[in-house]
Amino acid sequence: MSTSKPKVRHPNLPRNKHGLTFRDYEGAVSTLCAGCGHDSVTGAIVQAAFELEIEPHGLAKMSGIGCSSKTPAYFLSASHGFNSVHGRMPSVTTGANAANRDLIYLGISGDGDSLSIGLGQFAHAIRRNLNMTYLIENNGVYGLTKGQFSASADLGSKAKKGEANQQPPIDPVSLAMSLGATFVARSFSGDKAQLVPLLKAALTHNGFALVDIISPCVTFNDHEGSTKSYRWSREHVHKVVHTDFVPPAGEITADYEAGAAIPVDMHDGSRVMLRKVDDDYDPTDRLAAIDFLQRHTAAGEVVTGLLYIDESKPDMHGVSGTTATPLRDLDYDALNPGADALAEIQLAWR
Amino acid sequence: MMDPTDTSHPDYFHRVVDCQWACPAHTDVPQYIRLIAQGRFTDAYMVNRQSNVFPGILGRVCDRPCEPACRRGRVEDKAVAICRLKRVAADHREDISERLPKAPEQGNGKRVALIGAGCASLTVANDLAPLGYELHVFEALEKSGGLMRTNIPQFRLPPKVLDEEIDNILDMGVQVHYGARIDSMAELLDKHFDAVFVGTGAPKGKELKLPGRYDSDRIHIGIQWLESVAFEHTKTIGKQVLIIGVGNTAMDCCRTALRLGAENVKVMARKPRQFFKASDWELEDAEEENVDIVVNHSPKAFVVEDGVLKGMDFEVMTYELDDNGRIVESAVTGETMIPCDDIILAIGQENAFDWIERDIGFEFNEWDCPVVDEDTMMATREGVFFGGDAAFGPKNIIWGVAHGHAAAISIHRYLSGQDITDRPPRHLNLSAQKMGIHEWSYSNQYDASERRLMPHVGLKERFKQLDIEVELGFNEEQTLAEVERCLNCDIQTVFKAPACIECDACIDICPTSCLTITENGEAADLRTRLSAPAENMDQALYVSDALPQTARVMVKDEDLCVHCGLCAERCPTGAWDMLKSKVLQPYAGTVVAKPVTVKKAV
Predict the structure, then answer these.
(1) For FRET with A117, which of A224, B12, B152, B584 sits at 20 to 30 Å CA-CA?
(2) Is the pLDDT of residue A20 over 60?
(3) Which residues touch B7 (CB under 8 Å, ≥6 apart)?
(4) Buried/exposed B172-183: b ≥16 CB within 10 Å, e otherwise
(5) Is there a domain that residue A14 lies in?
């Protein structure tokens, strides 16, 4: 009986600057159904964290409830983590980020956790431009409660036993765009070549980075008539932008034709090169992007890639003018200036 | 574009079982290790005996081509102690007399002469006796076993073990004529045997014709000296002994010399250590006994004064190596005389076929050895077969056994009126191993234990007598740990492309990064585009048919797969399954059935 993945590894695995191999970014073996898209997303996170050379203790994994929200147990076992109440991961992350802005916050959520019970939290985290990466492992179905349609199920898509969905879907990408999100991407769990650079860009983005990932539920939503199955996704994905992530001081090795790639400088010195696959798409033009997305969604296409990016907007700390120092690094007097100081502040507001 | 791997060819999955593929006799190593793990020592012994005939002997002194091939040695640095486990099976087996092959009451009326009672002839006898042949073994010495008895010292291979396994063969009514050296092939052929097998080994020790060679009787030829010790004609040696040469015979000579009273034994090597021919473990055992191994000394002359051996002159050498470690230049930097009382020459051995007349139908090659067909083992004279060191020069016991099996097939076909070049094929069966969602019929969890070391008799104790076996055999703890180190490479990962939905679950779970889904390409290109580059060119890529959804291919680099079964456990559609391969090896008189169809997993 196998309950764990053995520590044995390929003897020639590359190591990053911390001396770690990608295996050091793994967690426990998944207890999700074999073939779950979420496990591929886990694999992509492991790869992205290894390639970004993240120090495991410099990252916090945040989640709510659902199949998706179990997955932080399966990667980065040496990182911090908080498994919160259903749909409340954004609030908990907001608090954590307010207290310690130095950590990288990686939230893992699902279509239920984010688009039903947690929709309000999700929307306000975007509004605040909370500095976090927010993954939605989107499978259109409540897998943990055995296959009811979720809020992202498409109109007319069929459940495993054949009944058609009657309610229109909430599209997290369109929603995020309309709420002013500064980084919006969509990908597919079955395409790591696209997903890994997107995750690297998202983890590097200063602000709220949404990556909506079509992640098929192999048990309840991988059949004929499903619009979130492996086969349907592969047949309907429309890639509009190709993303290359270039680390700080990294060399741009790909050959870009003049004007074919849009460079976006990230705040940490890395650079994201956006290569258009679709000529009439501009990932820096919000209104045009929204229009494009609406048209293609109506045509039954799943548009993927880094759909919108804006590195210029301040994040929550920037808007609020909070201290640049994590609260844990402030000494007691700075954290608690005393009753006199409080009285003075209150006096100013009289 | 690589074609999909043809796994229907019996050799594909056989090659994945590196140990079994590397073994000349194709012993089913993983199977007998599992049997040992279950405490089924007798069954484990019989699995061995079927292919290698001498498990107790080989469990001590096999040259172990399986171990350098062992996948475990690539995943970590140390192979499974396969040979030691073979001995465990032999040490703990129960009575096997009921399970041994028997000669039929009625013979088939055909007579076969076997020259030499070594491992090759004995294997032929083992295979032919149950088929009703009248077998006559002609042995020059007074005991059977050939070089196994004369050249391997008793402290490595106790006579009891040798006798028992040889008697199991001879007891099938094989007639051995001791003290019956064959001096003329023509005379033997005149006796009208229906077939003749030559298993005379490579009995001639190489000479070192340097000044002084014949001026003293204290200069010995290694294999002759060992034989003389084995038959107790030689019981003493001087205090200071030089062994010239650094192969396995040299190791046996130096350790034997210590037991006959030598106090200072030096093994003199012409080249640096990496060029030694001796097996690593034999070198280690000799060094444990404080044998001094001296490198870069090239023999120049024997120093004999007034008929008394004083020592030997050597040239001290230096070597220049290229990037591949090959010697490109050598130079003599000095000379030295090393004093000694005896010198033993152990610089190799050769065939000697002066007893085969040149005008009776045998073709000879440039080394003055009879030409022998590598498949049929037959010489150019019809009805005369060769095997062991007599066939293609000095090899080892397990090769002798493999030759014996092949020759027995030929002899039986030849005497049954069948074409001997039409070799019975090897087949391979695959069978399901799945017992439940996370349960397999084998111990699939990777066990990180390190290779166990063989316990030895203490250094003081072992020199008291010549026949104290140094290696004690694995104890229970060592056996239990070592069996779990086997990766069960015969439990094959088998892929069915039509079932794959390309969810990547197998790729993510694989602990050794063996799996990739990618665009097909040429092998050289594909090898660079995998989860981890496939740099071991000796190991196959297992390439699938085009996958249904994207027409990409699943590629498995067989090199470092630990056969943990996690790919099959995590596969939602059963595209990966673990199926046990069993190689069906043909032997004389056995009909190898066509493989059964692959059973579906439960």
Answers:
(1) A224
(2) yes
(3) B13, B494, B542
(4) bebebeeeeebe
(5) no
Q: Are B155 and B469 in contact (CB under 8 A)?
A: yes
What is the rounded CA–CA span in Å between residue B145 and residue B154?
A: 13
- B13-17: long-range contacts at Cβ-Cβ below 8 A with a sequence spacing of 24 or more? B13/B428, B13/B430, B13/B490, B13/B492, B13/B581, B14/B426, B14/B428, B14/B581, B14/B583, B15/B540, B15/B558, B16/B489, B16/B490, B16/B492, B16/B540, B16/B558, B16/B561, B16/B581, B17/B489, B17/B490, B17/B581, B17/B583
Instruction: Look up the pTM and report it.
Output: 0.91
Helix H, strand E, coil C: the string for B191-252 is: CCCCEEEECCCCCEECCCCCCCCCCCCCEEEHHHHHHHHHCCCCCCCCCEEEEECCCHHHHH
| pLDDT surpassing 80 at residue A128 | yes
Among B434, B445, B502, B508, the residue to mutate for chain A (most A Cβ within 10 A): B508
Q: Report the distance separating Cα B590 and Cα B557, nearest Å.
A: 35
DSSP state of B364: B
**How far is B169 from B172, CA to CA, in rounded Å?**
6
CATH number of the domain bearing residue A152: 3.40.50.970
Q: Which residues of chain B have a pLDDT value below 70? A: 591-602
Whether B560 sits inside 8 A of A10 (CB atoms) is yes
Residues near B489 by Cβ (< 8 Å), separated by ≥ 6? B16, B17, B18, B19, B30, B71, B561, B563
Matching residue, tokens 């032929």: B124
| Eight-state DSSP code of residue B156 | T
Q: Which domains does chain B show, CATH number per domain? A: 100-203+351-415 (3.50.50.60), 205-349 (3.50.50.60)
At A25-74, the pLDDT tens digits run: 999 999 999 999 999 999 999 999 999 999 999 999 999 999 999 999 99
Helix B82-92 to helix B476-485 angle (10° resolution) is 130
- What is the per-residue pLDDT across B58-95, written as a single tens digit (0 to 9) for each? 999 999 999 999 999 999 989 999 999 999 999 999 99
Q: Report ipTM for this prediction.
A: 0.91
Q: How many CB pairs under 8 A join A and B?
A: 98
Which residue type sits at A171? D
Among chain B, residues having any CB pair with chain A shorter than 8 Å are 74-76, 438-439, 444-446, 448, 501-505, 507-509, 511-513, 532-533, 535, 549-550, 560, 562, 564-566, 569-573
d(CA B546, CA B564): 25
B314: its two tokens? 């050597």
SS3 at position B183: coil
Among the partner-chain residues B512, B565, B572, the one whose CB lies closest to the CB of A8 is: B512
**Residue B464, helix vs strand vs coil:** coil
Query: CA B454 to CA B475: how far, in whole Å?
Result: 9
**Which pLDDT does position A258 carry in this prediction?**
60
In Å, how far is A348's CA from the nearest CA of chain B? 58
Burial of B411 from C-beta contacts in 10 A (0-12 / 13-18 / 19+): buried
Identify from A9, A74, A219, A236 which residue to disrupt to test chain B contact, counting B C-beta atoms within 10 A and taking the largest count: A9
Number of domains in chain A: 1
- Cβ-proximal residues to A118 (8 Å cutoff; 6+ apart), any chain: A64, A86, A87, A88, A89, A90, A109
Residue A175's domain spans which residues?
22-320
- Chain-centroid distance, C-alpha B1: 37
| pLDDT the model gives residue B156 | 96
Whether residue A216 lies inside any domain: the answer is: yes
Domain annotation covers residue A328: no
Q: Is the CB of A195 inside 8 Å of chain B's CB atoms? A: no
Is residue A138 included in any domain, yes or no? yes
CA distances from B417 to A181, B128, B195, B372 (A): 86, 16, 13, 20
Residue reference for tokens 């007399």: B97
User: Which residues are bridge partners to B580 per DSSP?
Assistant: B431, B491
